[in-house]
């Protein structure tokens, strides 16, 4: 029973750490693997994704709730 709860918690944590990111040129990427990162680190990561996808840097605004 404990294993089931641990696996469920890990699955929920994995789902919760993924989010869609729309670049400045309109492409959408599913960002994962950000659990444990600060908001500024996530913003820098998204800026890097935007640069790779669109060839330009931009100001990334993160909305949290």
TrEMBL record:
The keyword Signal applies. Keywords: Signal. Residues 1-18 form the signal peptide. This is Uncharacterized protein. It comes from Chryseobacterium defluvii.
